C-alpha cells in the first residue's frame, strides 16, 4: 500500500515541486531522475518509521539485546538519504548529531537522537533513562516522514549531495568516529554508498551520452568499494568496524576519495553550475 501511494502521489508531488526548475531550464532531462529520487527518499523515510518503531519499542521495554541488534539496521534507511540532509538540517541535528557537536559532549542535554541512544546502549550498557530520547527520536522521524513529500528537491542539492557525502565519509567517517560506541560503521558506509550511488545511477544515462569513459571509471570505483565491504559481510549485516584491516581501510579511503572527486564534477557535466 505504501509503495503504491508513493509511486502515484509522490511522483505528482515531485514533478509539481520542480515545475519552476523545468521552466527555468530548457532541458527537461533531470525531471524524471529527480522525481524517481524523491520516490526513493519517501520509500526510505517510510521504512525508517517502521524500523524506528521496533527499535524504540525495544528500548522502552528494557530489552537491551534487541535494541542493540536493531540499532544498525534501523539507521540504514536514514543513512541512505543523507545526501539531501541539508534540506532538513534541523531534524538532522536532532536525529544524527555526534557528541562532539555539543559543548558538554555526551552529558549535554541537547545531545539527542541515534547516537545518544547508541551511547546509552553500548557505553552505559543499559536502557535505563533512554525512554525520553527514544520518544524524541521517534517524534523527529515522524516529522521527517511527514515533511518529505512537501519538500522541493533542488537538482543542485541532490547532485551535489552525493559528492558531499562521499567527502564526509573519506574525511571523517572512515576514522570510525560516527558509530564510536557500537562499531557499526560498516552498516552506515554501505547505506551511504547506496544512497549516493542511487543518485548517480539515476543520472548515469544522461552522463553516458557525453562521457562514457567517466561512467566506466565511476562504475569501477563503486564496484571496488562494494568488493571491500563484501569481505566484511556477516549474515545480513557487517562485522565490527575494528576488524577492518589497515590495508582495507586505506583502500576504502582511496576509492571513496576518488568517488568524491568524480561525483563533484556531476553538477558541471549536467549544466548545474
From TrEMBL:
* Keywords of the record: Signal
UniProt xrefs under Pfam families: Peptidase_M75 (PF09375)
N-terminal signal peptide: 1-24
Q: Where in the cell is it found?
A: Cell envelope
* Ranges for domain Imelysin-like: 34-266
Q: Which GO terms describe its cellular component?
A: cell envelope
Q: Which family does it belong to?
A: Belongs to the EfeM/EfeO family.
Q: Would you tell me the protein name for this molecule?
A: Iron uptake system protein EfeO
Species the sequence originates in? Paracoccus limosus
